[in-house]
Design goal:
The protein is of the alpha+beta class. The chain folds into 2 domains: about 60 residues, no CATH class; about 130 residues, HIT-like (HIT family, subunit A), CATH 3.30.428.10. It is globular. The two termini are about 35 Å apart. Bound molecules: zinc ion. The site of zinc ion has 7 residues, from helix 3.
Length: about 220
């Protein structure tokens, strides 16, 4: 797993007639101004061009200690490289058989990922769609299913919280992550859990599978 990616990606400004050199963002033409973003980072950096790690490194949930150096922010890349499986014909998720999944419905499939330190489930649409591609029906189902999976996962003894993530920067086919955060392990709270998962030893496969099957059986979902 990789470090959680940013919450927005560079792209052309929205609007009916964006020009090649857009002017400042405004209420009428809002956009995430990447040039200004990079300039802010440069202004906030120290004499060595690097940001201070203090705010992250001092956090209880951060998995590392000792002298740290923040990476320099690389220049923006446009266009971005293609993600894995941008088309359905070369999509890993589309090619997986139903037998890979714990639970399936007409439009959705849920599987458990082994080799992770905490119960890790993944919810995917059957169709080759990304989040913004979902129609109203699928969007409603995703909302209801997200609640249902989180509720079932949080009902597993030892699970304090279901963390729910969608990044979408690696594989194009929509996949929603559900992590069962272990009860009482306060350092695993919050946004650093995916980093801890690259460090901690995995759950035994039979334990992960048993928890996944428990979640699937507890999933209250009327077929539609
Ligand atoms: Zn796909």
């Amino acid at each position: 797993m990789t470090t959680p990616p940013p919450d927005a990606t560079p792209g052309p400004p929205p609007g009916p007639t964006p020009g090649p050199t857009p002017g400042p963002a405004s209420a009428k033409h809002p956009r995430l101004d990447i040039r200004a973003f990079v300039e802010r980072v440069a202004a906030a950096a120290g004499p060595d061009g690097r940001l201070s790690p203090a705010q992250v490194a001092d956090a209880e949930i951060f998995p590392f200690e000792g002298p740290l150096r923040v990476k320099e922010l690389a220049a923006p890349v446009e266009p971005e490289p293609a993600r894995a499986g941008e088309s359905a014909t070369d999509c890993h998720n589309c090619a997986l058989p139903d037998t890979t999944y714990l639970w399936t419905s007409t439009h959705w499939r849920l599987r458990i990922l082994e080799g992770r330190a905490v119960p890790t489930l993944m919810l995917e649409p059957r169709a080759h769609l990304d989040l913004a591609d979902l129609d109203d029906r699928a969007a409603r189902e995703l909302g209801a299913l997200t609640v249902a999976v989180a509720r079932a996962l949080e009902a597993v003894p030892g699970v304090a919280r279901a963390h729910v993530h969608r990044w979408g920067d690696g594989a194009a086919h929509l996949h929603i992550w559900f992590f069962g955060r272990p009860a009482g392990l306060l350092q695993l709270r919050g946004s650093c859990l995916p980093d801890w998962l690259d460090l901690l030893p995995p759950l035994p496969a039979e334990s992960a599978q048993a928890i996944g099957e428990h979640v699937a059986q507890a999933l209250h979902w009327p077929e539609r």
